[in-house]
Design goal:
Layout (H helix, E strand, L loop, with lengths): L4 H7 L13 H12 L10 E6 L2 H8 L14 E7 L7 H18 L3 E6 L11 H9 L6 E9 L24
Antiparallel strand pairs: 1-2, 2-4, 3-4
Helix pairs in contact: 2-4
Organism: Desulfoluna limicola
Keywords: Oxidoreductase
Pfam families: Nitroreductase
Length: about 180
């Protein structure tokens, strides 16, 4: 799998339909290594992870947020990205970076992924998706659920966005 970094960036797309086959343990280990090597502010590493492979748990998480997390029910692997806000004031940024590392690592090792924001999202029952995920996964109080990444072998084909998709008018040099 000799891919350049830019090829990975160009090919990566969010995939929401996965083959039912499990992700091999070696690949899960590589994804976790990528996560643990992710940069964080002042090296405080406020993140923690819950690796989910149980179908029933993934199905429960898929309805913790009614819009945008349904694909988790069909994913063979979910990585829940948590943070301890007491450890670092920029935990939101740190968890965003680590989620990106996980997704790029997944692409590099032949998997696809999709990210679901949980933080600040409602659960559709008058509560918050974070609280629902916390309940499903027995996450201790004090930890925040930032996102859940569904990962697996794709069962849908999506090509990367062409260069014409890029909006270079959003790029400014030296001043706005």
């Amino acid at each position: 799998m000799d891919q350049s970094f830019m090829k990975i960036i160009r090919d990566r797309r969010s995939v929401r339909v996965f083959e039912p086959r499990p992700v091999e343990e070696e690949k899960v280990s590589l994804l976790l290594e990528a996560a643990l090597r992710s940069p964080s502010s002042r090296g405080l590493n406020p993140w923690q992870f819950v690796v989910v492979t149980e179908k029933k748990t993934l199905e429960a998480l898929s309805v913790a947020k009614p819009h945008g997390a349904g694909f988790l029910a069909g994913a063979p692997l979910g990585i829940v990205v948590l943070a301890d806000p007491r450890r670092c004031d920029v935990w939101v940024e740190d968890t965003s970076i680590v989620a990106t590392y996980i997704q790029l690592a997944a692409e590099f090792i032949g998997l696809k992924s999709c990210w679901a924001q949980i933080r600040l999202r409602e659960d559709g029952q008058g509560g918050m998706a974070t609280d629902r995920a916390r309940e499903i996964l027995a996450i201790p109080e004090g930890l925040e659920v930032a996102s859940i990444i569904g990962i697996g072998y794709p069962d849908e084909e999506k090509k990367g966005h062409p260069e014409s998709y890029l909006d270079f008018s959003k790029v400014h040099y030296d001043t706005f």
